[in-house]
Design a protein that fits this description.
53% of the residues lie in helices and 8% in strands. It is mainly alpha-helical and 371 residues long.
C-alpha cells in the first residue's frame, strides 16, 4: 500500500506491505496528532473519507480506531463524518482528516448546509435563493495612467516585438504540454502542462483585446491578470506575480534595451520568489529562473545585446533545469516524496527553460522582420 498518495494519483511518501485497519489508522493519525499538538481538553471534527472503492464497513473500522486514540489523549470529538466525500474513480483507500476546533470554527462547522457531498443540520426553507455574485480577482486595480511622452524609447524590443515573443513562448508551451504533464506525473499530479497551456491560451486571448498602443508594462499587467483568472493551480498566482513585477521593473520604458530586458527578466524572478518563497536548490522553477538571470547579467556586463542576453538566459536556464533533476524537492507537492524526488525533472523548471528558449530563438527573427 502507498502512504500519502494524492487524489489524482500523485506518489505518496512511502510504499509498505498492507497492514490491518488499526495499524493503518495509527500510521495516518499519529503525524496529524503531532502536527496539531492536540492536548487533553481539545476538541476536533473528524472526517474518515473513502476514496471510491473502500467499503463503509472498512471506513468505520478506521473511525473506531481514531476514536480510541483520541480518547486516550483526552481529545473530544465534536462531530464525525464517515463516508465518501472526496473520491477518484475506482480508487481503493481512505484518508483521515482532523479539524482542531475553537468556538468560532465550531460555530461554522455546525452551520446548516446542504450540498450533494455534505449535509449538516436542517437546510434553510422558504424564500428565494440569493443570487450569486461573480467575484473577479484583480491584481491590477492600482493601474495608473501612463504618460507615454516621458517613456524611454531607446532599445529594439518594442511592444509589438514583445507581443511576438510572448506568442512564441505560448506556441512552445502548447507543443510541449503533453511532455510537461508527463514529467509532472512522475512527482506531482500530472497537470503542469495542461495548466500552463490554459494560462498561455488566456494570455493570447487577453493580448488580442489589449489596446494596440499598450506599453510593455501594460501588456505585462494584462498577462498577469490572465494567469490569475485562468489558472487555479500554483502556476497561476506565481506567473501572475512574475509578470506584474516584471512590468513594474520597466514601467518607465516604451522599448527595452539590453539592460532593461535583463531588468524585466529579473522582475519575473523576483515576483515568483515574493509570491512563492522558493529559493535556489528547492527544486522548483526558481532553479531555472535564477541562473537564467545570472547568465543574462553576465552577458550584459560583457556588452551583450538584447538577443545575446536572452540567449544567455535560455542557456543558463537549460543547464540548471537539467542539473535540478538530481536535487531533492523542498517545496511544492513533490516535497513529500523526499529522496524519491531525486532523479526526476522538475516540471516548473522545465517549462521556464522552454519559455526562455522560445523567446531567445524568436527574438532575432522578430527583430529582422521589424527592421
Amino acid at each position: 500500500m502507498e502512504i500519502g498518495m494524492g487524489i489524482h494519483g500523485e506518489p505518496g511518501v512511502e510504499r509498505i506491505p498492507a497492514e490491518s485497519a488499526d495499524n493503518v489508522a495509527d500510521r495516518l493519525l499519529l503525524p496529524i496528532l503531532e502536527e496539531l499538538d492536540l492536548r487533553t481538553g481539545d476538541k476536533v471534527g473528524v472526517l474518515v473519507n473513502g476514496l471510491g472503492s473502500t467499503t463503509l464497513l472498512e471506513l468505520y473500522l478506521l473511525h473506531r480506531r481514531v476514536v480510541e486514540l483520541l480518547n486516550q489523549r483526552g481529545v473530544a470529538i465534536h462531530a464525525s463524518w464517515v463516508g465518501e466525500y472526496c473520491t477518484s474513480l475506482d480508487m481503493e483507500g481512505a484518508s483521515i482528516t482532523l479539524l482542531k476546533l475553537d468556538d468560532d470554527l465550531q460555530r461554522w462547522l455546525d452551520h446548516p448546509c446542504e450540498t450533494p457531498a455534505l449535509r449538516v443540520g436542517a437546510a434553510p426553507t422558504g424564500g428565494a435563493a440569493m443570487p450569486r455574485r461573480k467575484t473577479v480577482r484583480s491584481i491590477t486595480s492600482d493601474r495608473q495612467k501612463i504618460d507615454r511622452n516621458n517613456l524611454k524609447t531607446d532599445g529594439n524590443i518594442s511592444p509589438e516585438t514583445f507581443r511576438g515573443l510572448k506568442k512564441a513562448g505560448a506556441d512552445a508551451i502548447f507543443t510541449e504540454s503533453d511532455r510537461l504533464s508527463a514529467l509532472d506525473g512522475e512527482i506531482g499530479d500530472g497537470d503542469h502542462g495542461v495548466t500552463m497551456e490554459i494560462g498561455w491560451k488566456a494570455v493570447m486571448s487577453s493580448m488580442t483585446k489589449s489596446e494596440d498602443q499598450a506599453t510593455i508594462s501594460e501588456l505585462c499587467e494584462d498577462i498577469a491578470e490572465a494567469f490569475l483568472e485562468a489558472v487555479g493551480a500554483s502556476a497561476g498566482p506565481l506567473y501572475a506575480a512574475a509578470f506584474q513585477a516584471a512590468g513594474k521593473a520597466v514601467s518607465d520604458r516604451l522599448n527595452l534595451d539590453a539592460a532593461s530586458m535583463v531588468a524585466w527578466l529579473n522582475g519575473l524572478h523576483d515576483g515568483i520568489v515574493a509570491r512563492g518563497g522558493a529559493s535556489t536548490g528547492d527544486k522548483t522553477m526558481i532553479d531555472a529562473w535564477a541562473p537564467a538571470i545570472s547568465a543574462a547579467a553576465v552577458q550584459l556586463g560583457n556588452g551583450g545585446t538584447t538577443v545575446e542576453c536572452l540567449s544567455a538566459a535560455a542557456e543558463g536556464a537549460r543547464e540548471c533545469a537539467d542539473a535540478a533533476k538530481g536535487m531533492i524537492s523542498n517545496r511544492g507537492r513533490s516535497k513529500k516524496l523526499g529522496q524519491r524526488s531525486a532523479g526526476h525533472v522538475d516540471p516548473g523548471a522545465e517549462s521556464a527553460a522552454v519559455l526562455l528558449k522560445a523567446w531567445s530563438q524568436a527574438a532575432p527573427h522578430l527583430l529582422l522582420n521589424r527592421d
